[in-house]
């Protein structure tokens, strides 16, 4: 955390400062080190772990790496101990540990865990990462929508509702029209509809925004579940069998070993996601539109006094955010799953919300956070396919455990937009 | 450009905030709008700036009637405003704040920050401001933030600038600099409306003075008028500006504070190794620009601050580490700086507010139930004694005017047997008439032998009350000086410069 992130009260002179929560990082690191060490102490694994790096279609194949499982785990434990000690030393001398150290720690700890889990078998690393990216797509779109809304000062708990309604609208429309593109547009419209309700209650009627968001989620669950059981399942062939977006290989780029299969052998929605992340990040910080959105979320009265229409700006931003989250919803029914199912997002919107906060209301950082959560989900599914010694129920908890640790342990002191969740009342 | 307001009337429900107010501002003129808090100055300016719509009357620019639907229209017409609470976004840079709302853009709405930087530098140079366009506003001192507000207005080619209570947050030196800037603006042909209730400043820069009381113009005054004349116009009756007070007769050493350090939840240290003492029957006034540790100091005195180190010794008993209740039981009376947040419960009646610090025991509570009769009698007595203008004791505190609210707080705190009185900004936002009254009560408490700690950011108030003056800067004591120390010296001390020969 840089000094800029510290809450600076301009009225309060800072004579000296203690950075709070310095010991949180080494604490979390120590906990994970102990966990990895416990794995190998309680259940040491015989055999070698193989990491596969190549896929068909690469320009050249990177050979598999095979290592003795126990050796890898112990090496990881030792490295983790070193990193934890370094972080503890930093905390002791009143410094923050650089994020790169924490990231390296995470990579090492995860590698140790994976080596232990796949002992005697082969882990397709590229498949794991490519799948993680695909799983993260709805989270990234949801998080982008969340970042935009909150930057304009509207808390969006209804991301989950937008994802679910987007998935529903995409499935039905694509089934009827036979075109996934029509489904995509319908998903955006559905996201906007939820956003419109959110805006109406939050911006126009000053209702407590957390409550509105939760209620909207429940409303969407109720509506889609009703439609699913009463309409869609009666006529699944016509209404709930959407055509899918095909996988689209980008010529040349997709042949690069490791990188190609992960990033450039995906569906059009993933490419759309790259564009959305870059566009949102650029527009928020570099464009007139973004300056105004941020102004409205930080100090709406100041924005008003320079002639910016606060209410209209908030509405526009929230609706745009809804459309973006809607695209995320489309991923479910137009890419991942054959048809719409009841409550099929499984609370992904809440994970996206966590990504917003973990990412400190920054589109790029929130995207990285969403990717982390996607990775945690995919570790679970890959390990259950190749057979993991960890009970699958436990593995299913993984994304949520990661969420809690990430937000509580590593996010540090972050500052939300000053007027986030505060309705603008013109006196 | 010549600005004229003609018969502006603005009502809020049954309250008439502005009643047929007319005034004109010529180019190159500083027109002071003088009036007490709540007289309707800010309402009038909000009408002028398009934030409120007038119910009657019109705004004329060069004799053309204007129809402002929002601040955007007012700005386009050449009216700029330097708000009392700066309308700046703390996490934006100076350049971003200045360009907001009229951004220069390139391809696809890309911000042209270079153009904004250039504009900031140009205006800065023209007026000798030293403002870095890339500095974050929240990192700038308050005085510089105000200059950013001025640059912001000028960058939109404002020809009439409205300054709304601009000196409330400034040190005396910064105030002088602002006066110089205002004169410079005037020289360059800008018309200025200067809203204030501080008489000294008015007389220093005004070309014309319009006095407003209870929403109506009560007269024009000449800048040569005396303070007493202006105050009488403002209040509507002759006012004693300086409370008569006999020299202090200090008794025994009552309060000894040593090495007091106060940090907040986030670890910021707001009070840093402060030591002082107050004798019985003496007023120690704490001067300093708002936000230099005064709030935290007073909160520590009553046990409200979370992380306190050092010692506060009252009559031989240690206060640090005790609860608020213990502090109250030790005889500490506390007038908090913000009556609406900490001093009163707005939705409680006056009577209920008067017993807030005695909510757990006699005389108003026995065996767990309220003795309403006793409370009612007590409240009626206090209402009369403290001249609280209210329909009755069951009026909600939130419905009173600022001055009357403050009198309720003062009445509550002074109606117990005190061993120490801590008064923080006791007359902030209070009308001149009530200031006089509250000052008298504080002096009376002193004369009865109570040690008093008064915190104020107004030098006039410090001068009126102090027996000795302690100046705080960035949480440290700059010096403790006699009451007759000159304003200039105090001003320098408030900016952190230690005076010669002080005993700090």
Largest interface: A-B, 38 and 53 residues
Output the structural class of chain A: mainly alpha
CATH architecture of the largest domain in chain B: 3-Layer(aba) Sandwich
Overall number of structural domains of chain A: 2
| SS elements, strand count of chain A | 5
Describe the structure.
The complex is a heterodimer of chains A (427) and B (504). Chain A is mostly helical. Chain A has 17 helices and 5 strands. Chain A has 2 domains: 118 residues, no CATH class; 285 residues, ABC transporter involved in vitamin B12 uptake, BtuC, CATH 1.10.3470. Chain B has 3 domains: 233 residues, 3-Layer(aba) Sandwich (Rossmann fold); 163 residues, P-loop containing nucleotide triphosphate hydrolases (Rossmann fold); 73 residues, no CATH class. Helices cover 32% and strands 26% of the residues of chain B. The relative contact order of chain B is 0.10. Chains A and B meet through helix 11 and helix 12 of A and helix 2, helix 5 and strand 12 of B.
Features:
heterodimer; A: about 425 residues; mainly alpha; ABC transporter involved in vitamin B12 uptake, BtuC; two-stranded antiparallel ribbon; disordered N terminus; B: about 500 residues; alpha/beta; Rossmann fold; 3 domains; 6-stranded mixed beta sheet; about 30% helix; nucleotide-binding (chain B); membrane (chain B); ABC transporter ATP-binding protein (chain B)
Produce a short descriptive summary.
The complex is a heterodimer of chains A (427) and B (504). With 427 residues, chain A is mainly alpha-helical.
Summarize the topology.
The complex is a heterodimer of chains A (427) and B (504).
Chain A: H1 24-42, E1 48-52, E2 65-68, H2 69-92, H3 99-117, E3 122-124, H4 125-151, H5 159-177, H6 180-204, H7 209-232, H8 236-239, E4 247-249, H9 259-263, E5 265-267, H10 268-286, H11 288-298, H12 300-305, H13 310-336, H14 348-358, H15 363-386, H16 392-396, H17 398-410
Chain B: E1 3-12, E2 15-25, E3 30-35, H1 41-48, E4 56-61, E5 64-66, H2 71-76, E6 79-82, H3 94-99, H4 113-127, H5 142-155, E7 160-164, H6 172-187, E8 191-196, H7 199-205, E9 208-213, E10 216-221, H8 227-235, E11 253-263, E12 269-279, E13 283-287, H9 294-301, E14 307-314, E15 317-318, H10 324-329, E16 332-335, H11 339-343, H12 350-354, E17 365-366, E18 369-370, H13 372-385, H14 402-414, E19 420-424, H15 432-447, E20 452-455, H16 459-465, E21 468-473, E22 476-482, H17 487-494
Parallel strand pairs in B: 3-8, 3-9, 6-7, 7-8, 13-20, 13-21, 16-19, 19-20
Antiparallel strand pairs in B: 1-2, 1-4, 4-5, 9-10, 11-12, 11-14, 14-15, 17-18, 21-22
Helix pairs in contact in B: 4-5, 14-15
């Amino acid at each position: 955390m840089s000094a800029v992130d510290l809450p600076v009260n301009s009225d309060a002179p800072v004579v000296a400062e203690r950075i709070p929560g310095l010991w949180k990082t080494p604490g979390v690191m120590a906990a994970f080190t102990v966990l990895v060490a416990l794995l190998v102490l309680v259940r040491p694994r015989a055999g070698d772990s193989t990491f596969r790096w190549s896929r068909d279609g690469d320009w050249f194949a990177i050979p598999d790496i095979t290592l003795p499982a126990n050796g890898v785990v112990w090496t990881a434990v030792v490295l983790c101990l070193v990193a934890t000690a370094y972080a503890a030393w930093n905390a002791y001398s009143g410094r923050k540990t650089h994020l790169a150290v924490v990231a390296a720690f995470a990579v090492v700890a995860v590698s140790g865990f994976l080596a232990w889990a796949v002992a005697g078998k082969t882990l397709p690393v590229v498949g794991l990462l490519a799948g993680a990216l695909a799983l993260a797509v709805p989270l990234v779109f949801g998080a982008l929508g969340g970042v935009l809304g909150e930057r304009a000062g509207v808390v969006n708990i209804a991301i989950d509702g937008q994802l679910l309604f987007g998935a529903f609208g995409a499935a039905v429309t694509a089934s009827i029209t036979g075109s996934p593109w029509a489904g995509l547009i319908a998903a955006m419209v559905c996201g906007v509809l939820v956003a419109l309700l959110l805006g109406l209650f939050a911006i126009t009627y000053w209702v407590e925004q957390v409550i509105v968001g939760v209620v909207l989620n429940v409303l969407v669950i109720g509506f889609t579940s009703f439609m699913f059981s009463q309409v869609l399942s009666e006529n699944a062939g016509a209404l709930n069998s959407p055509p899918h977006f095909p996988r689209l290989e980008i010529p040349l780029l997709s042949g690069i070993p490791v990188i190609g299969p992960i990033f450039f052998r995906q569906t059009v929605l993933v490419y759309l996601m790259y564009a959305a992340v870059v566009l949102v990040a650029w527009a928020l910080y570099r464009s007139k539109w973004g300056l105004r959105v941020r102004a409205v979320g930080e100090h709406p009265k100041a924005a008003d006094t320079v002639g910016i229409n606060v209410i209209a700006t908030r509405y526009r931003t929230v609706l745009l955010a809804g459309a973006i989250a809607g695209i995320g919803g489309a991923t479910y029914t137009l890419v991942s799953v054959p048809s719409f199912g009841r409550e099929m997002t499984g609370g992904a919107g809440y994970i996206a919300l966590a990504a917003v906060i973990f990412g400190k209301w920054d589109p790029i950082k929130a995207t990285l956070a969403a990717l982390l959560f996607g990775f945690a989900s995919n570790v679970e599914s890959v390990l259950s396919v190749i057979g993991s010694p960890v009970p699958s129920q436990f593995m299913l908890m993984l994304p949520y455990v990661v969420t809690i640790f990430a937000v509580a342990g590593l996010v540090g002191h972050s500052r939300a937009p000053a007027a986030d969740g505060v309705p603008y009342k013109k006196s | 450009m010549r600005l004229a307001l003609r018969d502006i009337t603005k009502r809020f429900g049954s309250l008439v905030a502005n009643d047929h107010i007319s005034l004109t501002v010529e180019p190159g003129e500083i027109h002071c709008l003088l009036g007490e808090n709540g007289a309707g100055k800010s309402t009038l300016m909000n009408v002028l700036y398009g934030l409120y719509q007038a119910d009657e009357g019109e705004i004329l620019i060069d004799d053309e009637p204007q129809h402002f639907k929002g601040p955007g229209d007012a700005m386009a017409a050449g009216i700029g405003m330097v708000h009392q609470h700066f309308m700046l976004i703390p996490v934006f840079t100076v350049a971003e704040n200045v360009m907001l709302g009229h951004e220069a853009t390139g391809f696809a709405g890309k911000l042209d920050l270079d153009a904004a930087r250039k504009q900031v530098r140009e205006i800065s140079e023209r007026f000798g401001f030293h403002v870095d366009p890339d500095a974050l506003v929240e990192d700038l001192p308050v005085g510089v933030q105000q200059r950013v507000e001025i640059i912001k207005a000028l960058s939109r080619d404002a020809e009439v600038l409205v300054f709304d209570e601009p000196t409330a947050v400034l040190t005396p030196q910064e105030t002088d600099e602002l006066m110089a800037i205002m004169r410079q603006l005037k020289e360059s042909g800008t018309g200025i409306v200067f809203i204030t209730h501080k008489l000294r400043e008015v007389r220093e820069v005004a070309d014309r003075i319009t006095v407003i009381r209870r929403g109506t113009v009560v007269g024009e005054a000449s800048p040569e008028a005396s303070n007493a004349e202006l105050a009488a116009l403002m209040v509507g009756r002759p006012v004693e500006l300086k409370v008569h007070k006999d020299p202090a007769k200090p008794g025994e050493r009552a309060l000894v504070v040593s090495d007091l350090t106060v940090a907040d939840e986030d670890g910021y240290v707001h009070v840093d190794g402060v030591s002082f003492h107050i004798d019985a029957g003496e007023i120690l006034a704490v001067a300093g620009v708002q936000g230099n540790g005064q709030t935290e100091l007073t909160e520590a005195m009553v046990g409200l601050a979370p992380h306190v180190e050092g010692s506060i010794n009252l009559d031989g008993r240690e206060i640090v580490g005790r609860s608020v209740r213990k502090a109250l039981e030790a005889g500490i009376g506390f007038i908090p700086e913000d009556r609406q947040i900490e001093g009163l419960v707005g939705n409680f009646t006056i009577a209920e507010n008067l017993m807030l610090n005695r909510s757990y025991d006699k005389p108003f509570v026995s065996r767990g139930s309220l003795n309403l009769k006793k409370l009612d009698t007590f409240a009626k007595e206090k209402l009369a004694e403290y001249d609280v203008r209210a329909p009755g004791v069951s009026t909600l505190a939130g419905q009173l005017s600022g001055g009357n609210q403050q009198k309720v707080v003062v009445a509550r705190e002074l109606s117990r047997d005190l061993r120490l009185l801590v008064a923080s900004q006791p007359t902030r936002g209070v009308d001149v008439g009530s200031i006089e009254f509250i000052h008298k009560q504080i002096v009376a408490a002193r004369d009865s032998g109570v040690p008093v700690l008064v915190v104020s950011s107004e030098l006039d108030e410090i001068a009126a009350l102090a027996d000795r003056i302690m100046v705080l800067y960035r949480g440290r004591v700059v010096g403790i000086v006699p009451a007759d120390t000159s304003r200039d010296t105090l001003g320098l001390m408030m900016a952190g410069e230690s005076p010669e020969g002080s005993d700090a």
